[in-house]
Every structure is written in C-alpha cells, then in structure tokens.
Predict the structure.
Amino acid sequence: MKVKNTAKILIFCILFLFFLNRIYDIFTWKDMVGDYTSPMETFYSLEEDVVDVLFLGSSHSYCSVIPAQLWEDYGMAGFSLALSGQDLAGSYYNLVEALKTQEPKVVCVDLYGCALQGYQIEGNLYRNILPRKLSLSSLEAVNHMVETDNKSDFILKWPIIHTRYKELKKQDFAKKSPVYLGYRAEFVAEGAAKLNFANVEPKPFREQEQQWLKKIIDLARESGAEPVFVVAPYQIPLQEQEYIAYAKKMAEEYKVPVVDMVEVSEHIGLNWETDFIDYGHTNYWGAQKVTDYLGEYLKNHYELPDRRGDDRYALWDLDLKTRQHEWTNYVLSGICDRQIYFEELSRLEDYTVVVSTTGEYISGEAEIESCLQMLGGFHEYGNGSNVWVIDNKENIYVSNTGEAFKNLPLTYGELLVSVNGNTTNVMVDRTAYQKTADGVNVLVYDNLLGIVVDSVGFEAMYAYGMTR
C-alpha cells in the first residue's frame, strides 16, 4: 500500500511540475523588442561554440549593429546579448552566461553603460534579469543588480509574472522558432540634433561601474576573447561625454581598442536628420552604416572565420532571411502605384496573398485584370464575388461558386474567407481586412514572420484606385 501511495505522489509531483513549467512558459516575461522575444531566449537555443563575436550593452548597441549584415557581408557569426537599459553589471553577467556555452573570439562592449547608475526603469530590470536560467551566476546577478528589498521575487519570478494573465496574447501560447539574434529593423526617421563635439576632460564615473568594466575586460581575456569598447552613435550629453572620455582613458591603460562611431560619423556618412529613430538610437539606414564600418574593423583586426555554408549556422541564414523579409514588408507597405504593387506581389516568396473581388467589381476592366494576371491562375472572373488564396506563388484555394466558407491555417494563426452573394470577407485571427466594398481587396501575410504585412483595396468606382 505504501508503495502505491508513494508512486501516486511521485506521479502527481511529476505532472504538477510539468503543468507548472508549461504555465510558466506562457506567463514568462516577454520582451516586446525583437518579435516578441528576448535575445536570451534565442541564445539558449544555440548550439555550443557557434558565436564568434558577442555584443553587450543597451539599446544603443542593439539598434546600431545588424548581425545579419555581418553574416551576409563577411560570414561573421555575431550575436547580441544587448538589452534595454543594460548597465555594466548586466553586461558582465551576460558575458558570464554566454561563456558557459560559447567561445567568442571578440567581445564588443557598449560604453553607454558607464553613464548608467542601476535601473531607474523597472521594465529594463525585468528584461535584464528574468530571462536568465536559474544558476549560481543568475543568483549573483540578482544580488548585485536588484537594489530593492524584493530580490527573492526576481529569483522565484512567479511573484512578478503571475499577474500577466491580464495581458496574455495569442503569441504567448504559440511556440515560435527563435530567429532574433539581437537586432530588429526600425524604418522610422525622426532624426536627432547634430552632436556638438566637445573637448571634454575625462570625468570618473561611479567606482562600481569602473569595477564592472574591469571585470568584463578580465573575464573576456581569461576566456581567450579580445575585448573591444564601442561608442554607439547618439546625441551624447556633456556629462556622458566626460564619462566616455574616462572610459577611453581606462581602455588605454588596459590596452583595449575603442571604436567610437560618433568620431567617425561624418566619415561613414551618418546623417543626424535621417539615420536616427530619436536622439539616442539609429534606424535601419544608420545601423547599416555603423555595421559596415564595424564589420570592416573586425575583419581587418581579428581572425574571424567565414561561417557561411556551415550547417551549424542555419540560424544565421534564417536571421538574414528574416531581415530581408522586414525590408520587403517595409517597401511593399509604402507602394502607392497599382502596377508596381502587383509587380512586387508577383515576386514574393514565403508569403500568402489573398485576393477577393466583391460588390460592384466588373470583369473585363483591362487595367485591374492585367494586374491580377501577374499573380497567375486568375481565369473567368465573372461579375460576382470570388476569393483566391495564393501561398508561395501557388493557388491553394479558389472560391468561384458564389457561396463559400473556408478556414485555412497560417504560420501563427488562421485565415477565414467567406463569400455570400455579392459580398466577400477575409479575416485573420478574427480581424477583418476589407478596404473596399466594391472592387478588389488584397491581403498580404508573411509566412516567415507570421504577420499581416498589408491590406489594400482597389475601388471600382474610382477606376480601381489604390487605398489603404
């Protein structure tokens, strides 16, 4: 009897732990930067010893360096463990975590951390603590980085994340393949005031930050990696210029090279009005220029292997494809010419395109039908309402009966198309996408990223003019 009871208790404990772990996966902290994931989540999925260049730092770092560009141009296996508001203690403990499974040859450290004094923004502390796996080093990180009395909450995590039930979304329940290597493109150009370079005197920043910087240098070198200090381009206040000048003085003392992207901003053609999201972060075009310069520097100063073609680096190929999709989506959503739009649609791969004719759509209109024919497979439209679903350039569904109701799976969701008399409806995850009641509607879904990219209507009564 005791054996049976013990077995039941053991089975209950195993099932309870399994259930608890699944619930934790759903409730766990999700960073809204990087396609609803954290670079730490992706990092834990890596094979051992695949990262050659490791980037540490804050948003200044992850907005400035594009690992996919380093991969495409040089075959460098770069990975960024930069997170919003990451101070030098956070950079140190991310390096500790990285060295458990990786042997980077170069460690690039963002010097913005010199100006930080702990975490004034609670969300940034969550980002830098909660994604870590439980270990002795993660306990040390909590002890050094959390300055409040609720350190146990960061260790247990449940006291912090249990209230997330109020904000759960469908993404929380989907198991997405991690493709976030530490950069997500921003196609916004708000601009920043041009920096006034000052001949500042070095000013010591906090002693404890100096100690963390020294610890990063020592740990990198002990592991066989070369530390490099990087100053990401941003509009640096005077005091922070003084701190960075002091960090450069430390770099000289410890023989650490410094790549100051502010000093070379004119050389690389950085435009302070068009290459920034705001005063502190480069956009996609600015990051391209920074990455190009940094890539050349790394190539010329370190022996970094070209990993392209190696099966162990499939994630880098996928990351490059992801960045290419982001660019394609940006371009597509900005096209206002009907002919050019359909030409672009006809070239898309790894996309689902849904075309519907509805209401007063009339066949035989040469301008619109010639555009539709670019997508292939459109025959005998008739004057009624119809839906075509084209997945990766192949017709997977055609409704030409006048009455239809069809559910189709998408990468991370569900497509519903219906035809009822003279009306068509297209929905993705219960959201309707209908730009015109009379004419042609087009919905574009990115199969790789799992998102609706564009929804466009062509109004019959306005000569099939384009509307979003």
About this structure: The first helix runs from residue 2 to 27. Residues 212 and 391 are 52 Å apart (CA to CA). The mean pLDDT is 86. The chain has 16 helices and 17 strands.
